[in-house]
Write a structure and sequence with these properties.
heterodimer; A: 414 residues; alpha/beta; Rossmann fold; CBS-domain; six-stranded mixed beta sheet; four-stranded antiparallel beta sheet; 15 helices; 17 strands; elongated; disordered C terminus; B: 219 residues; mainly alpha; MetI-like fold; 10 helices; CBS_dom_sf (chain A)
């Protein structure tokens, strides 16, 4: 655990970068420092590994004051990743990754074996080992940067806007990768960003800082979206807070209804009969493998032919176990029928979420996420440490609301 | 004038002398570059560490650089002696230094801040960071300066012939005094060859020492 105790950083010219900061970054969790430029987030980060020393207050790592440790020694036990990766241009990828093991005096072979292991861990092709950094793409460089930070298996990882210099697609994949790694490694991570969406996606808890290095709020992402402490935090969170907070409500709570399916290879008469027998306005056409292909209305069917020759209407689907309510709602909006197709983890159809079922789930979510306003004291909330992740989409699902309705009737006929 | 541009028989007869002049030329032009490099690295480090040192130091080397070489040679004669190699080597060392000092300082300044910071953050102490990270990254810029210093040093040595020690420059004076073009042509060709060779050796060294920098200059 990293503890800030009333930490202040004042520069010689009188500028106060960080002001009376007290917070805890729990062991094995991702704590994000987020805020506009000039809020002291990077300064705060660098005080942890003593790249900058605090003017007053203490920073403790597992109850040990960092000031009592030799800086170089302290830093070898703390991984550090920065925006431009900061790779050594004159060293090959493998030797870049092995930097800290070399500093710790490991023999060359062991250090390189470890580096090769890490390349695999962060998803780098082994063929890149003997390249120089300039021969890599920005995303690959950033992966090398992460591997290098992890090389000596430090319990703590400091990340200073590590993904902000790469394009959005690469950034998203690096973020997913970090979450995947963290699930495996359980490092104590302090992550600095100016991007609130990144903070919400990655953070177990988020410290929002305002200019001058004052802590505005420390909370879990769901809590932050639901109950921003003040106008500054609300403004910083931006638009669509309500919709975005649905990312933290599991889609399991949505009641499912059975859906009548029809095979693509069925002819139109059979489809019409199926619809009539079931009394359905819509049929879900499925392929031979049982996966959904599109909606079809018996009224729109041509006189003859099979469904495979008939144009189908678009459908949206979500994973009912892994996805959030936001993903389910999105799936419903993508379909002209207004129904979202719920899939099992293995891609089989579990049922459909109707508009009605979705609005019930929304009402439930609103009751959970937006209770009457009450003062929120800065300080770690207990629910931040109880959070867990089991999905990558739309920020992952972290908390199951009490009384979730994951047992909706589901069936599939066809 | 039916004197040919090159009389091969003269070259053949004087091959020994020409070889001696060539050797002399190499020593007097390259020793200053090596000495200047050995001085420029620590001096450049000091100037990078304490930036305020840089301008005055470069100011001094630039003033020396601006002095006409012949004048400096003449001034040095009472100290280092007439027709002695030292009389040529000392000023050329200062000239090379004027080129190399900024190269070392620029080379160190070319180390990206992100690299410096990540080195510190990973636990490099200041000395280790300098030796293992900053100096190696400065090498391409320093070697680029060394190329300039070497070539200009090779061409400047000839002027030393006016005070009796100019390596291949002696051939120019000889040819001019006797209205005899062969030594002049030989002097020019050998000086150019020497310069090209020295440049090539440094380029080769750069390829071998800094394979990682090729794309950087292309980028």
């Amino acid at each position: 655990m990293i503890t800030f105790e009333q930490v202040t950083k004042r520069y010689a010219d009188g500028t106060v970068a960080v002001s009376d900061l007290s917070l805890e970054a729990p062991t094995g969790r991702i704590t994000v420092f987020v805020g506009p430029s000039g809020c002291g987030k990077t300064t705060s980060l660098r005080m942890i590994n003593r790249m900058i020393d605090a003017s007053s207050g203490r920073i403790l790592i597992d109850d040990r004051d960092v000031r009592g440790v030799d800086p170089a020694e302290l830093r070898r036990g703390i991984g550090y990743v920065i925006q431009q990766a900061g790779l050594f241009p004159h060293r090959r990828v493998l030797d870049n990754i092995a930097t800290v093991p070399y500093l710790l005096g490991w023999d060359k072979r062991r250090a390189r074996d470890r580096a090769a292991e890490l390349m695999e861990l962060v998803g780098l092709d082994a063929g890149l080992a003997s390249r120089y950094p300039f021969q890599l793409s920005g995303g690959q460089q950033q992966r090398v940067g992460v591997a290098r930070a992890l090389a000596a298996d430090p319990p703590i990882l400091l990340m200073d806007e590590p993904f902000s210099a790469v394009d959005p697609v690469v950034r998203a994949s690096l973020q997913d990768e970090l979450l995947r790694l963290q699930e495996e490694l359980h490092k104590t991570i302090v992550f600095v960003t100016h991007d609130i969406d990144e903070a919400i996606k990655l953070g177990d808890s988020i410290a929002v800082l305002r200019v001058g290095g004052r802590l505005a709020q420390l909370a879990s992402p769901a809590e932050l979206l639901a109950r921003p402490a003040d106008d500054f935090v609300a403004g910083f969170l931006g638009r669509d807070r309500g919709i975005r907070s649905l990312s933290f409500v599991p889609a399991r709570s949505v009641r499912l209804r059975p859906v009548t399916t029809v095979s693509l290879s069925a002819d139109v008469d059979e489809a019409r009969r199926t619809a009539r027998d079931a009394g359905e306005d819509w049929l879900l056409a499925v392929g031979d493998d049982g996966t959904p292909r599109g909606w079809v209305s018996p009224l729109d069917l041509p006189r003859a032919g099979t469904l495979a020759e008939t144009p189908l209407l678009a459908f949206g689907s979500y994973d009912r176990d892994a996805d959030s309510l936001r993903a389910a709602l999105d799936a419903a909006l993508l379909s002209p029928t207004g129904h979202a197709v719920a899939l099992d983890g293995d891609g089989a159809i579990a049922g459909v979420a109707t508009q009605r079922a979705l609005s019930e789930a929304l009402a439930e979510a609103a009751a959970l996420t937006a209770p009457p306003p009450r003062p929120v004291s800065p300080g770690l909330r207990p629910d931040a440490s109880g959070a867990h992740r089991d999905g990558e989409h739309a920020g992952g699902v972290r908390e199951a609301p009490p009384g979730s309705m994951g047992d909706g009737r589901e069936a599939s006929r066809g | 004038m039916d004197e040919p541009l090159v009389r091969w028989d003269w070259i053949a007869r004087n091959a020994g002398t020409i070889g001696g002049l060539l050797g002399d030329h190499m020593v007097m032009s390259l020793v200053p570059v090596v000495v200047a490099l050995l001085v420029a690295v620590p001096l450049g480090l000091l100037c990078s560490r304490w930036r305020w040192l840089y301008q005055p130091t470069v100011g001094v080397t630039n003033v020396v650089y601006s002095l006409p070489s012949l004048a400096v040679f003449s001034l040095l004669i009472p100290i280092t002696g007439l027709a002695e190699p030292g009389t040529v080597i000392v000023p050329l060392t200062f000239y090379s230094l004027a080129v190399l000092l900024p190269s070392v300082v620029d080379g160190l300044a070319a180390v990206p801040e992100s690299v410096r910071q990540s080195a510190t953050a990973m636990g490099f102490g200041p000395l280790r960071r300098l030796v293992q990270v900053e100096l190696p990254i400065a090498v391409p810029v320093v070697l680029a300066g060394t190329r300039v210093a070497a070539v200009s040093s090779i061409s400047l040595v000839s002027i030393g012939s006016l005070i009796g020690r100019g390596g291949l420059g002696y051939l120019f004076i000889d040819g001019w005094q006797r209205t005899f073009p062969t030594p002049i042509v030989v002097g020019i060709v050998l000086t150019v060859l020497l310069a090209v060779l020295a440049d090539g050796v440094i380029i080769f060294a750069q390829r071998v020492l800094t394979p990682w920098s090729r794309a950087r200059s292309a980028a």
